[in-house]
Design goal:
The structure is a single chain. This protein has seven helices and six strands, in the order E-H-E-H-H-E-E-H-H-E-H-E-H. It is an alpha/beta fold. Helix 1 links the parallel strand 1 and strand 2. Helix 1 crosses helix 3 and helix 1 crosses helix 7. The longest helix is centred in the last third of the chain and has 14 residues. The radius of gyration is 16 Å and the shape is globular.
Length: 202
């Protein structure tokens, strides 16, 4: 039986990163357990003037519509407040967790062992179980506090993949820049489902 991958989405700006990651994962037929933080509702409204539904079934349709993938893969959405969900337990086996984009508030809470909602609890579980946790912070500039929190998480085993695109693959669109970051984040989970031109040397 295949294990699911947990996709955490926080209230950092740049929801396109989450949408593109979900698109490629579903197209590659992965099973995704998605949890969006409370702040994501406000970010959708601010960035796209879109209202994200709160009910899990409606959320599944919403995220599939945003990703443009109607049938491939398996998607289960969890309410941010449901700390009793399967993914909140270390006994529930997964491929790991990708938090994209990851806010500095979430980084701070994870670095200090706080878990006030399902997303934070689930990320904490990945660390305590020694599973893969990949964080894609989307903030600039980083303060010293941010850097210390990110360092603490790296020391605890998390992989930090800042949302910093490259240009050696000759990007032509915003999506090309976003996809580079998504691909590098998924590389940390040994998942290769994003088509982009990798560096081949001179």
């Amino acid at each position: 039986m295949s294990r699911p991958l947990i996709l955490g989405i926080t209230g950092a700006s740049g929801l396109i990163y989450a949408v593109r990651a979900l698109k490629y994962l579903l197209q590659a037929d992965y099973e995704i357990e998605l949890v969006a933080s409370k702040a994501v509702y406000m970010v959708w409204q601010a960035e796209q003037n879109i209202r994200m539904p709160s009910e899990p079934v409606q959320q599944e349709s919403f995220w599939r519509q945003q990703a443009g993938v109607e049938t491939s893969g398996k998607l289960i959405c969890h309410p941010w407040s449901d700390v009793g969900a399967t993914i909140a337990s270390g006994s529930y086996r997964t491929l790991g967790m990708l938090v994209i984009p990851c806010s500095m508030s979430t980084v701070a809470k994870l670095a200090t062992g706080l878990s006030s909602d399902l997303l934070e609890r689930t990320a904490d579980v990945q660390l305590k179980e020694g599973r893969k946790l990949v964080l894609v912070p989307r903030e600039t500039p980083f303060s010293l506090i941010h850097l210390r929190n990110l360092t603490a998480l790296a020391e605890a085993g998390a992989r930090i993949v800042p949302a910093i695109p490259a240009w050696y693959h000759n990007p032509q669109t915003i999506e090309d820049l976003v996809d580079f970051v998504v691909a590098r984040a998924l590389d940390q989970l040994d998942i290769d489902c994003v088509q982009f031109d990798r560096w081949q040397g001179h």
